[in-house]
UniProtKB/TrEMBL annotation:
Residues 10-177 form the Cytochrome b561 bacterial/Ni-hydrogenase domain. Belongs to the cytochrome b561 family. This is Cytochrome b. It is found in: Cell membrane. PANTHER family: CYTOCHROME B561 (PTHR30529), CYTOCHROME B561 HOMOLOG 1 (PTHR30529:SF3). It comes from Burkholderia stagnalis. It holds the Pfam family Ni_hydr_CYTB. GO terms for molecular function: electron transfer activity; heme binding; metal ion binding. Gene3D superfamilies: Transmembrane di-heme cytochromes, Chain C (1.20.950.20). One of its GO terms (cellular component) is plasma membrane. Keywords: Cell membrane, Electron transport, Heme, Iron, Membrane, Metal-binding, Transmembrane, Transmembrane helix, Transport. Its cofactor is heme b. GO terms for biological process: respiratory electron transport chain. Its main location: membrane.
């Protein structure tokens, strides 16, 4: 390949806005999630735990329209790459989208199991999707494990973007900038 990046089609502004706003929220969510105290029982969430719940709600409120937008818009032209890389990229994106929905939903289920109010604290509330139950801790562990998997996927995604920029020099990274 040449040292000059190919001119690749850019994603539209809304797609880029969804991507980068979610990236910032996910980074904040991981920082809060890893520094907040462990959650036990049904005591109402306070401080960092409440912030974690609120950020999760925001993520879900952005992830759903992002997924709908992604499915509704015409895909941009794909950069030519080997079939194996194209498959890995497609699979990783599907896992990222699934995880960006699943992790907040598992958090929502966990909160419902603990009888917590799930909302943004400004009068906006998500409905309960599960009755209070004793599985809160188990769902919380699944939420945490899946979030760790999401962090790994995000790391792979970022490494792939950098590889496209500095190794393959094919313009893929510039499509999202």
């Amino acid at each position: 390949m040449s040292d000059t990046p190919h001119q690749a089609a850019r994603h539209d502004r809304l797609t880029r806005l969804f991507h980068w706003s979610m990236a910032l929220l996910v980074a904040a969510q991981f920082a809060v999630g890893w520094t907040m105290p462990d959650v036990h029982g049904t005591a109402p969430p306070l401080g960092l735990v409440l912030l974690h719940v609120n950020l999760g709600v925001l993520l879900l409120l952005i992830a759903v329209p992002r997924l709908l937008w992604s499915g509704a818009r015409k895909p941009i032209a794909q950069v030519e790459q080997r079939r194996a890389l194209a498959f890995i990229a497609s699979a990783t994106h599907k896992l990222l989208y699934a995880s960006l929905i699943a992790v907040p939903v598992l958090g929502w289920l966990n909160a419902n199991g603990r009888t917590w109010h799930v909302g943004l604290g400004n009068g906006f509330s998500l409905p309960a999707i599960a009755a209070p139950h004793t599985l809160g801790a188990s769902i919380g562990e699944l939420h945490s494990a899946w979030a760790t998997g999401l962090a790994i996927l995000i790391g792979l995604h970022a490494c792939a973007a950098l590889a496209h920029r500095f190794v393959m020099k094919d313009g893929v990274l510039s499509r999202m900038l």
